[in-house]
Amino acid sequence: MKTYGPILGVKLGNQKVVVVSTHDLAKKVLLQDDFNGRPDGFFFRVRAFGKRKGLLFTEGPTWSQCRRFTMRHLKTFGLGQSTMEKQLTVEAENLVNYLRRASANGPVPIHTTFDIAVLNSLWCMFAGHRFDYENDKLIEILEVVHDAFRLMDTMGGIVSQMPFLRFIIPELSGYNELMRILQKLWNFLDEEISVHEKQLSGNQPQDLIDAFLLEISSINGERDRTIFDRENLLVLCLDLFLAGSKTTTDTLATTLLFLSLHSEWMKILQEELDNVVGRSRSPTLKDYSSLPMMEAFLAEVQRFLILAPLGVPHKTMKAITLNEYSIPKASDTIVLLDFHSVHNDPTHWDHPEEFRPQRFLNDNGRFCPNNASMPFGLGKRRCPGEMLARKSLFLFLAYVVHYFDVEISPEHGPPDINGYDGFTISPKPFYLKLATRSDVV
Prior knowledge:
Radius of gyration: 22 Å
Organism: Habropoda laboriosa
Cofactor: heme
Subcellular location: Endoplasmic reticulum membrane; Microsome membrane
Low-confidence stretches: none
Number of strands: 10
Distance between the termini: 53 Å
Binding site for heme: 383
């Protein structure tokens, strides 16, 4: 950015890319509907059977209709309701029980520790049930999810820029691996939908999948003009399954990695929990507003540990001017936002290179949000699962910090702070030693 400025146009093969940096310009892009398109390349279609389906990579009426339906029914089945809070508590308790069992056998694999807890919090709303930690089939599919995020970058990898390579070097281009991953994910979700189809009765849906299936069955004609078909349901489930869980699990895992390397912050958070919650009960979501250091710590984690540095790619919906630069309406032009520059912009952050949760506290020690932070995006494309993600991050982290002391495993050594570079930056495998804290009922 220092060399070429905050708006950079590059060409990667045949792919035109515009990279937008700094907080103010990124905010301007995110709040303009004309930037709300999604790329329409090979990678973005192959995951949806060669079509434009689902929630993540669609635009216009198809996207708005799908988002409205998804948000309405997620709220019906718990999002933002007391049932969601109860479910999160159940998952937090099960997470602690799992960690107690796992830590008894030695260091715990933290990079996968939060996968099931986070997924269950969402799965109950859109599939109506939860998974056990011993479910081998789920453990296998979660490994596939991790592979998927490492395999492809924000723009879909080289096979997206040069799709013909899948015919010439299908193995080297990553195409064979991509299709192997997609096939496993499709099969897993297809089986879930099939179970719902067999059990569906009456017109009282129990979860989002049921609601979608009832919409499909109620359509008479003009099927090509609606989002309600089985393929779109499968791709919507894929979007929720991947985007709805991966970033939250990686944020939690990376936070534990960070705490293991900076034990002073572990002690600070434990002391605050002990003072507010005490040692005779578990933390609850109602405690959050009484834990300003925990709240500030999580806010700083999401500013400092940027796991999605380029976010989800955008596309212009029409020719537009941004700070005197003309950006054309072109189906093959991708707009990327540099969130690292957003969260390190010196015009909005004092000494952004420092990890300093106190920047989110006022003089009275109360939490004070900074609107320059945008870990979930802004505008109409803002993450629809933000509320669930924020509450999951707090409660799961609070439970781990409350119930366990965390140390670097002597046999594995310090974890690598540098993660795998893919669609997001995900932590490399690492193990930590967990010891149960005393005096907790």
